[in-house]
Specification:
With 401 residues, the chain is of the alpha+beta class. Helices cover 51% and strands 14% of the residues.
Length: 401
């Protein structure tokens, strides 16, 4: 165990879980991650190993077959997994968000139907808010769900689904005007629909098409897709929570915990970049000595380590705030913003330490250099985080004049 990014106050169970996950990452993920990433190959064996460890049910309550652990435990596991390969943490994270939304907002029938199978990894989750033309403006979604008898008919095009092809349950946010008079605020006329499907690509059920994987700069291995609904019919009992008009709040609750986990991913990638940089600096010689003995490199290592430590501390604070039952959008926004920015900077510094070799696909840092930018935009850009942080600060520090 390294000196950096330690977490005080963990119990024996948490420490045992983290030790097990770290061993799995060192033995099963790091040795094959770069090879799989270069082939853009889905990590089937790794995912099966995570299922055996119970990580797909880490936060699902014990009554549904999960481990019933805290958000903090989950985030620390994500940090370890991202240290090995960020794409694997993405596979887990989207599944976790859907399970969390079901736990917090689902009807009893929905919980009984999905959570036990999600805990085993038999049902795999994805969630879908974004669309091709709206970016961060969730209120502008055009996908729509219209009630017809005991069914809803869904139409629209969604974008940027992580696990879009491999998932079997997708939480989809659509506009639903039923019961909401004209002039209702957009965020009060949105509904989350639970769409069941088979894994795969193409028209995978009548009215539902997953066109194929989007080719990306990094974040490979995990499938990122579009989702097209053309008169897709689903039962009325697949409205999350059983009531329309609550979808925006349900999704934002899921994204809030998702931001903690994106921060955890940033911490994990930054840790790995530091490990690679500090190791290479002690092996590479220039001017008759290891470059680690040059003051310029020592300064760089000092800055990198400090950023790793600071990002980890903020991520842990945000997770503990949510676990306490308190509102944590301020802390989650700060953690996501800082961890993703620091991750980019630490990775770039490790890249610079590697010199020309950092540009070679033979070295792991090249992969990290392409992966880090995704964290700058995932679960809300830096600009969105700053808007959230600024508004919350003005609520907390309202001028009394």
């Amino acid at each position: 165990m390294t000196r950096l990014a330690q977490t005080a106050g963990l119990n024996d169970v948490q420490r045992e879980i983290l030790s097990t996950v770290r061993d799995f990452v060192d033995k099963e993920i790091i040795p094959v991650a770069t090879q799989l990433e270069h082939r853009d190959e889905y990590p089937t064996e790794i995912v099966e190993g995570l299922k055996e460890l119970g990580l797909f049910g880490l936060m699902i309550p014990e009554e549904y077959g999960g481990l019933g652990e805290s958000l903090l435990t989950y985030a620390l596991c994500v940090e370890e997994i991202a240290r090995g390969w960020m794409s694997v943490s993405g596979i887990i994270n989207t599944h976790f968000i859907v399970a969390y939304m079901l736990k917090q907002h689902g009807t009893q029938e929905q919980k009984d139907t999905f959570l036990p199978r999600m805990a085993l990894g038999e049902v795999r989750g994805a969630f879908s808010m974004s669309e091709p033309a709206l970016g961060s403006d969730v209120s502008a979604i055009t996908s729509k769900g219209v009630k017809e008898g005991d069914e809803y008919v869904l139409n629209g095009q969604k974008m940027w689904l992580t696990n879009g092809g491999t998932s079997t349950l997708v939480a989809v946010l659509c506009r639903s005007d039923e019961g909401h008079p004209e002039g209702t605020a957009p965020h009060k006329s949105m509904t989350t629909f639970l769409v069941e499907k088979e894994a795969g690509f193409g028209e995978i059920r009548p009215g539902l098409t997953i066109p194929g994987k989007i080719d990306k700069m990094g974040y490979k291995g995990v499938d990122t897709t579009e989702l097209i609904m053309d008169d897709l019919r689903i039962p009325a009992n697949r409205v999350l929570g059983g009531t329309t008009g609550r979808g925006f709040y349900q999704m934002m609750d899921g994204v809030e915990v998702g931001r903690v986990n994106v921060a955890a991913r940033g911490c994990g990638v930054a840790q790995r970049a530091f490990e690679l940089g500090v190791s290479y600096a002690q092996q590479r010689h220039t001017f008759g000595k290891p470059i680690a003995q040059h003051q310029a490199i020592q300064f760089k290592l000092a800055e990198m380590a400090t950023k790793v430590e600071a990002a980890h501390a903020m991520m842990v604070n945000a997770a503990r705030k949510k676990d306490s039952g308190e509102r944590n959008d301020l802390e989650a926004g700060m953690a996501k913003y800082l961890a993703s920015e620091y991750c980019k900077e630490v990775v770039e510094d490790a890249f610079r330490i590697h010199g020309g070799y950092g540009f070679s696909k033979e070295y792991e840092i090249e992969r990290l250099y392409r992966e880090a930018p995704m964290l700058l935009i995932g679960e809300g850009t830096a600009e969105i985080q700053k808007m959230i942080i600024g508004r919350r600060l003005l609520e907390e520090y309202r001028f009394q004049g």
